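Suppose a classmate hands you a notebook page containing two proteins, each written out with its sequence and a corresponding row of C-alpha cells. How would you begin to make sense of it? This section walks through that situation. The first entry is reproduced here exactly as it would appear on such a page.
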Amino acid sequence: MRVVIDTNQLLKMMMAGEKSPLLMAWRSHAFEVIFSTPLMAELLEVSSRPKIEKLLRFGQKQKFLQLIHLHAIWVTLAPNSPPCRDPKDDMVIATALGGQSEFIVTSDKDLLDDELLKQTLAKENLQILYPMDLLKLI
C-alpha cells in the first residue's frame, strides 16, 4: 500500500513520536510512505515555526526527518495533476500521482471535501482519507 501523508498529519506524527498510530503502522511496514522534495520543503518550513518547535522534544524533529529520508520512497511530481481548491495542496496530489499512491492521508478539508477532485482521483485509483480511515483498512 502506497500512501502520501499530508503535512498536517506528518506534524502530528512528528510531535507524537512513538505514540502516533500512523507512525507505528508505517514503521511496522503496513504501508509505504511516498514523498517528494516539495513536500519535504513544506514540512521543514512549517516545523520550523516557533509555535511548532516549542512543542517538540530535543532531537525529535531530526529523528523524524531522518526516518523520512531513509525509509520513504522519493518520487518526482506528476505533471498535469488535477488542481485542488487550495493551490498549496496541488503538490500533495502531484506527489501521490507521481508515486502511484493509493491513498492521501489528511485532515485538510480542501482535499477531503472536494467531491469533484475525489471523483477525478478515483479514476487514478487514488483515495483521500482521514488517518483513522487508513488505519481501519490496515
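The notebook's second entry, a different protein, reads as follows.
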Amino acid sequence: MIDEDTLKALKTAFTFMPHAMEINRFEYGDDADRILAQVNFVREVLTSHGIDPEEVAGEINPSSSPNSCY
C-alpha cells in the first residue's frame, strides 16, 4: 500500500498534468502518445487506490474548484 505523503504527492502532481483531451500532436508532437500513456497510468494508479481522478483537483486546491451542485 502507498503511504499518505506519497499519495498526496501523486495527487498534487496529477493536478499539473494535462487532461487527456488536451493531448494532441499539434501541442505535443511525437510525444503525444507517450504523454497520454503517462497520464492514463497515473489515473489508473489513483483509481486502484480508490481515488476518483476527477475529484483530485478539488481536493488538492479546494479554493480553485467550482462548488458542487449536489
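A careful reader of the second entry would note: The CA atoms of residues 58 and 65 lie 5 Å apart.
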